[in-house]
């Protein structure tokens, strides 16, 4: 396998966030063959009051899928990266209902979280995407 860097992992996290549930399972199998661990979490609801729930569900998915270990460092890296991604989308999403997905990808020391949401505003829908990245030691 060729060298995989932070840009490659970011692209994979975006693909996971954009995937349907069926595609999610296919992508997970494909990336796992190359040692890349991925996960995705669906979400919908009021953005502002749900930030904590999104962070928690993303951390749970990351541990469940073996993206990070159940340690302070591993969980903190995911929480920080998803918080960064959410802050990138917060200007457009704050005060509105959102629906979408958070995608995660990890290879070696590279961990990326992508938040992709559609923002409901009457019959006009806005779309927003945010990324967060962390470098995490391979032991975490």
From TrEMBL:
GO terms for molecular function: RNA binding. CDD domains: HutP. Keywords: Activator, RNA-binding, Transcription, Transcription regulation. The keyword RNA-binding applies. The keyword 4Fe-4S does not apply. Homohexamer. Antiterminator that binds to cis-acting regulatory sequences on the mRNA in the presence of histidine, thereby suppressing transcription termination and activating the hut operon for histidine utilization. Belongs to the HutP family. This is Hut operon positive regulatory protein. The lineage of its organism: Bacteria, Bacillati, Bacillota, Clostridia, Thermoanaerobacterales.
């Amino acid at each position: 396998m060729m060298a995989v860097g932070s840009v490659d992992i970011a692209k994979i996290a975006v693909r996971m966030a954009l995937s349907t549930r069926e595609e999610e399972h296919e992508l997970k199998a494909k990336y796992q063959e190359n040692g890349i661990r991925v996960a995705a979490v669906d979400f919908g609801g009021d953005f502002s009051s749900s930030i904590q729930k999104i962070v928690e569900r993303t951390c749970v998915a990351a541990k469940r899928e073996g993206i990070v270990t159940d340690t302070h460092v591993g969980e903190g890296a995911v929480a920080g990266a998803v918080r960064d991604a959410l802050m990138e989308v917060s200007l457009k999403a704050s005060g509105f209902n959102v629906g979408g997905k958070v995608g995660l990808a990890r290879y070696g020391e590279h961990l990326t979280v992508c938040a992709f949401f559609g923002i409901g505003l009457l019959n006009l829908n806005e779309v927003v995407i945010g990324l967060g990245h962390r470098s995490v030691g391979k032991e975490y």
